[in-house]
UniProtKB/TrEMBL annotation:
Pfam families, alphabetized: Hexose_dehydrat
Gene3D superfamilies: EvaA sugar 2,3-dehydratase subunit
InterPro entries in the record: EvaA-like, EvaA-like_sf
Residue span(s) of domain dTDP-4-dehydro-6-deoxy-alpha-D-glucopyranose 2,3-dehydratase: 13-214, 244-446
GO MF term set: lyase activity
Top-rank lineage group of the source organism: Bacteria
Protein name: NDP-hexose 2,3-dehydratase
Amino acid sequence: MTTTAVPPRAPAFQEWFEARKSAHEHRVRPLALDRLDGWRFHEDTGNLVHRSGRFFTVEGLRTYVGEESRARWSRPVIVQPETGILGILVKRFGSVPHCLMQAKMEPGNINTLQLSPTVQATRSNYTRVHQGNRVPYLEHFTAPRRGRVLLDVLQSEQGAWFLGKRNRNMIVEVQPDEDVPVLDDFRWVELAELRSLLHTDNLVNMDSRTVLSGMPPTPPAAGAAGTDGFFRPAPDGRARHDTAYLRSWFTEARTANPLVQRRVPLADLADWEYRDGRLAHRQGGPFTVIGVDVEAGGREVPHWTQPMVAPTGRGLAAFLVRRLDGVPHVLVKAHTEPGTFDTVEIGPTVQCALGRDDRDGAAERSPYLDRIRTAPPSAVRFDAVHSEEGGRFHHAETRYVIAEAGPDAEHDVPDTHVWMTVEQLTGFVRCGGHVNVEARSLLACLHTLG
C-alpha cells in the first residue's frame, strides 16, 4: 500500500448526495399502531411490544423531582436498554483529516436521506436480530480493531422520549496507507467541509452531530473564509471558573433534586388514549405515538413496520456565548428531562419544546428565552434547523441557535446556569454522560464558527 495524499476522485458533495437520493426507492406511510406487523399492545400492561422481545418497547413513565408529591411528567416513553454504536472513521489524506460519512435513510427524517456516521447501528442491527445484511465497516469499531481510537464514550440520547437511552460514540482513525474500500452510499468528507454542512438545514443527522461534538475544533488557517476567530482566545485570557469549580457545580446540581423515575403500564396513563390509530394526550400535548410502514432500499432490511414518537411542534435549543476576560464562553444549564439517565445533564442555555420549556402542565419559563427570541441579526452567530434521531422520532426538528450575549448577561446568573469555556465544555463531552444531546449538537455547530 502507498500513502494517499488526496482522497479518491469524486464528484462535488452536493452532486454525490443528490445521486444517492435517486439511487434507492424509499417510502414511509402512516399505519395504525394495532396494524403493525410483529407489534402488539400487551394484554396486561397495554405496553407496545415486539413479538421477539427485542428492539424496544413503548411504556408509561412517571417522573418525580425533589420532594414533590405529584409527578412532574407522566407520559409514554421508549425503553431501549441496548447500547448501539455511532462511529466515524477518520483518515488523513496528506495532512487533512477526512471523515467517512454515509447517506442514510431513516423513516423519521423529514427529508428521508441525511448524512450519518460511518456506522449507525443499534445492537439489534449489528448482531443481526432481524436477519438483515451485515453493517458495513463495523469491524473498525468492535474489538479487536485496527486504527487509533480518538473517542470512545457512552452518551445519552433524548431524555424527553427515551428512558436512560445511551449509545457508544466513537471516532477511530486509520493509518493513511490503509486501504478502506468506499461503498456507493459512503464518501470521504473533509472535516472542515463536514462542519460547514451543519449550516444547511436537515442535512447532518443527530448521530453525526453527537459524535462530532467530541472532536476538538481545528484551528482555522490564517485568513480562512467563513471563520470569525471565535476560538482564538486572548493570549493572557483565562476561564471564568476552573474545572474543579465546574465539576462541583455539576455534582451539586445532580444531588440537589433527586429524580425518581417509575415505569408504569402504558394502560395506567389516564390522560393518554388510543384513538385514530395513534396514542395521544386527551388534551393535546407535545407529541403522539404513531405507526409507520417503511420501504427502504439500501438498508439492512428493505421493509418493516414500527411505532415512532411524532412531536407536534418544533423545538428550540440555544447557546448564549460571549468573551469573558478575552476567552470564549458558553452559558449552560443543569437540565433535567423525564428520561434523563443520571438526574441532571449539562444542557443548552435555553431548551424548549413548542415554544416553551419541555414540561407537562405549567411552563417553567427560561429567564433567557426572550433574549434568544429577540436577539438582533447581528448577534446571531448560528441559526439552522436540524432533525432529531430519525430511527425513533418522526419529523422531529429543533431550531439550533447560537447568539452573542450582551455585556449584562454575565451578571446575576441563576444557580441553574454557569459560564464555561468551549474547551471546558468539550472536556465534559469527552468524559461521556455529562452533556445532553441537544447541547452536544450545539457544540458541534459552535465548532463551525472557527
